Amino acid sequence: SRELFVLTYGALVAQLCKDYEKDEDVNTCLDRMGYGIGVRLIDDFLARSAVKKCRSYSETADMIAQVAFKMYLGVTPSVSCSSAAGNEFSLILDKNPLVDFVEELPAERASLCYCNLLCGVIRGALEMVHLAAEVTFLQDRLKGDAVTEIGITFLRKAEDRKHKRN
Amino acid sequence: MADEALFLLLHNEMVAGLYRAAEQGEGENGRCTTKLESMGFRVGQGLIERFTKDTARFKDELDIMKFICKDFWTTVFKKQIDNLRTNHQGIYVLQDNKFRLLTQMSAGKQYLEHAPKYLAFTCGLIRGGLSNLGIKSIVTAEVSSMPACKYAVV
């Protein structure tokens, strides 16, 4: 019944496009809804997966990509670290189930981030485990890029977490 | 399994988001329900198309309603409709005693006044499914005690 979710998401985006004229408003709305979902989804995720505490940002990013995405969307994006400081990662999705039924964005909606909900979800979930992060789309297949890439930038240093362990 | 949680959360966010926007803007409550219902309608149409691609033709209305109660409901909500009643003159009442979208909310009379918001999408879902199977209908829902609810199809 992933189809139900994908179809519902499509209907939601369509409705939001009708309600808001500007793409940025739709994007913001999707992000906000995603945030609301993320803060609750993390409970469900932790209950289902019973994973242990992640000890580093890269472990967290791997967890999101390999466990969470697989559990909820059935795809496993590949993770790559894109900064020397070790706090910027990108998840590369070559198959995005949310756009299964979407061929292309309509011409007047060129800057719509169709999957912005995902960014909000990741952001909300991370915040509930006390990790502040910025999540955005770096590349989007619907806009003509080769792959869909989500960038996660963790905003706090790893040293904070080490203190908590003592 | 996990998909259900995702859909549940998305649905609840949608309801909350639409009503929040309505409070800030000019829209009245009635319009939110209509929007939710029309979203459900679109989704219902799409879902029914995919489910019935390979199934045989339906014999009559009752057959279609039984399909909705058994296969459709099972695929969407992982359980069948508990009770289907009809007066054989075009009115059907579907009763679900443990409606998935309401079980998390309350188990009695609490929050009863908020229940209709969460049922609007499903009403649209049923209406959309039926419309693509060739039946024009009006679907309304009523809740007397959570999480049981009844859908009336006319």
Automatic annotation (TrEMBL), chain A:
Q: Name where it mostly resides.
A: endoplasmic reticulum
Q: Which organism is it from?
A: Calonectris borealis
Q: Which domain of life is it from?
A: Eukaryota
Alphabetized SUPFAM superfamilies for the sequence: Ligand-binding domain in the NO signalling and Golgi transport (SSF111126)
Which keywords fit this entry according to its UniProt record? Endoplasmic reticulum, ER-Golgi transport, Golgi apparatus, Lipoprotein, Palmitate, Transport
Q: What is this protein called?
A: Trafficking protein particle complex subunit 3-like protein
Location in or out of the cell: Endoplasmic reticulum; Golgi apparatus, cis-Golgi network
What does the entry list under GO cellular component? endoplasmic reticulum; Golgi apparatus; TRAPP complex
Keyword Ribonucleoprotein in record: no
Gene behind this protein = Trappc3l
| Subunit-level organization | Homodimer. Component of the multisubunit TRAPP (transport protein particle) complex, which includes at least TRAPPC2, TRAPPC2L, TRAPPC3, TRAPPC3L, TRAPPC4, TRAPPC5, TRAPPC8, TRAPPC9, TRAPPC10, TRAPPC11 and TRAPPC12.
Task: Please describe what this protein does.
Answer: May play a role in vesicular transport from endoplasmic reticulum to Golgi.
Q: Which GO terms describe its biological process?
A: Golgi vesicle transport
Question: Which family is annotated?
Answer: Belongs to the TRAPP small subunits family. BET3 subfamily.
Please give the InterPro entries that the UniProt record associates with this protein.
Answer: Bet3, NO_sig/Golgi_transp_ligand-bd, TRAPP_component
From TrEMBL, chain B:
Protein name stated in the entry: Trafficking protein particle complex subunit 6B
| Family matches, as SUPFAM superfamilies | Ligand-binding domain in the NO signalling and Golgi transport
- In the UniProt record, the gene name given for this protein reads Trappc6b
Lineage, top ranks: Eukaryota, Metazoa, Chordata, Craniata, Vertebrata
- Keywords linked to the UniProt accession: Endoplasmic reticulum, Golgi apparatus, Neurogenesis
Biological process terms in GO annotation: endoplasmic reticulum to Golgi vesicle-mediated transport; nervous system development
Subcellular location(s): the record lists: Endoplasmic reticulum; Golgi apparatus, cis-Golgi network
- Where primarily located? endoplasmic reticulum
Name a GO CC annotation attached to this entry.
endoplasmic reticulum
Please describe what this protein does.
Answer: Component of a transport protein particle (TRAPP) complex that may function in specific stages of inter-organelle traffic. Specifically involved in the early development of neural circuitry, likely by controlling the frequency and amplitude of intracellular calcium transients implicated in the regulation of neuron differentiation and survival.
Pfam families reported for this sequence: TRAPP
Tell me what organism the protein belongs to: Calonectris borealis (Cory's shearwater)
* Family to which the UniProt record says this protein belongs: Belongs to the TRAPP small subunits family. BET3 subfamily.
